[in-house]
Amino acid sequence: MLRIGLVGCGTHANWAVVPAIKAAAPRAALVAVADVNAQNLAKIEAGPAKRYSDHRQMIAVGGLDAVYVATLANTHADITCDALAAGLHVVCEKPMATSVEDCTRMTQAAAKARRVLAVNFETRYHAEILQIRRWIDEGHLGRVEAIHIQDFWDGHKVWGEIGARRKRLTDLAGALDCGIHKADWARYWCGGSWKNITALGRWFDEDVRFAPHIGVLGELDSGQMVTLNASFAYSAYIKPHAYSHVLTVVGSQGVINHFEDRVAPSVVRLTSEALTATHEVTATGHADVMTKLIRDLADAAEGKPIPREMARGEDGLAAQIFVEEANKQAVARR
Fold it and tell me: How far apart are the first and last CA of the chain?
């Protein structure tokens, strides 16, 4: 059994991390939690887990095999490196950090400690993402040349308690706080490293550091062009909710399309020379797929092979290269 200590007991921890660890039983158990915010520590539904106001104290007491880092991204690097130096495996929330420098430091710490550093790109486990990977691997698209992704939502409204959380996330990474998942998909499907990234952003008069609406054009050295249009501004300033997700993968011998608006059923469709197929996809919650990640970490801790779905520190670093360059260019062109 993987004994996990959770650092960061805020909204995401309550919504997704704690339920995911509980659902991973008996492969994993939450045995300790830590947060500098006493209110968060009091509210976390962690059962009999020991509670600490300092993650370093939690680590020093011992009895852990792994640490889950669910704090704000600008604190990820130090906490992760502390856990790795203590000989613990780590799952770090996305974005892995707020700079390429910190991501590099984290991957180096994992290599030195000979421990697993996983990054919570949990959408790799979603049914439609796995299905797209299978179709590509089976050769139905021939040579993949282009990937186009539109992911528009409100990032939570700009008002209220959740609006304050939205502002914190947008100040750290803009719409790419969640858009980073989509950038990761391209490498998950096709491999390669990022090059030739360019971006434009729009702020909608919102007082945040990075763009709540951004368009990015990038290229992988494995040969694919990638366009990512991501938004936290889509209906963020009005009461009604709206969502628009459109994905197209274009190959030399076929195409894949996925559409979701949270009104009609979500559908992923392959059209190719050899096969035409359609799959209706059931909505998946964060905790459902994160449980798979926790179980995979428990297996990895026992020395079992790490599946491609479990993103590693190197994947988090590659995604941060994309995010950092895109946000830098959007700010420069503001």
Answer: 50
- Reduce the DSSP state of residue 288 to 3 states and report it: helix
Q: Closest by alpha carbon to 216, among 187, 175, 248, 247?
A: 175
Instruction: Fill in the amino acid letter for 307.
Output: P
- Give 257-305 pLDDT, tens digit per residue: 999 999 888 999 999 998 999 999 987 777 889 999 999 999 999 999 9
51 token code pair? 């509670």
Domain that holds residue 131: 127-283+317-332
The SS3 of residue 47 is coil
Cβ contacts of 277 within 8 Å, gap of 6 or more: 135, 269, 270
Separation CA 157–CA 65 (nearest Å): 38
Q: How many CA atoms, within 13 angstroms, populate the side-chain half-sphere of residue 309?
A: 22
Residues comprising the chain, all counted: 334
pTM: 0.96
157 and 141 in one domain? yes
Report the CATH number at residue 33: 3.40.50.720
Q: Give the CB-side neighbour count of residue 311, counting CA atoms within 13 A.
A: 32
